[in-house]
Specification:
alpha/beta
Length: 118
């Protein structure tokens, strides 16, 4: 969805069926698709959105989460460590001007990184 009232494009993942009630892998694919479109992406529908893989953000992208919006890591495809990451992690050409606000993550014991105990 493009907001023609402002100079900034706005994409709402709900336009792509990103939902607290959605299938876990579909939520990842839908959020990734919205993020690839760039500009500003807003997730305003309250609820817990389950994710099972990393979403990669490119340059000049802003991701805004509303009040009572949570991302919960789940282990349907195996463990992973990042819910959202710079696309450059894969391409080795780091993107810039990436902004994320209001993000609440429920790690849910899925994080693959082992913490060293001193």
């Amino acid at each position: 969805m493009v907001d023609t009232q402002s100079k900034m494009d706005f994409t709402h993942p709900a336009d792509f069926v990103f939902s607290p009630n959605g299938f876990v892998i579909d939520n990842v694919k839908v959020l990734q698709k919205a993020v690839y479109m760039g500009d500003t992406i807003g997730v305003s529908r309250s609820g817990t959105y389950k994710m099972t893989a990393t979403v990669y953000m490119g340059s000049n992208t802003k991701l805004e989460f509303g009040i009572n919006v949570f991302i919960e890591e789940v282990n349907e495809l195996g463990t992973y460590s990042h819910v959202i990451s710079n696309k450059g992690e894969v391409t080795r050409i780091h993107d810039e001007y990436i902004f994320i606000s209001g993000l609440n993550i429920k790690v849910n014991g899925v994080d693959v990184r082992a913490l060293n105990k001193a």
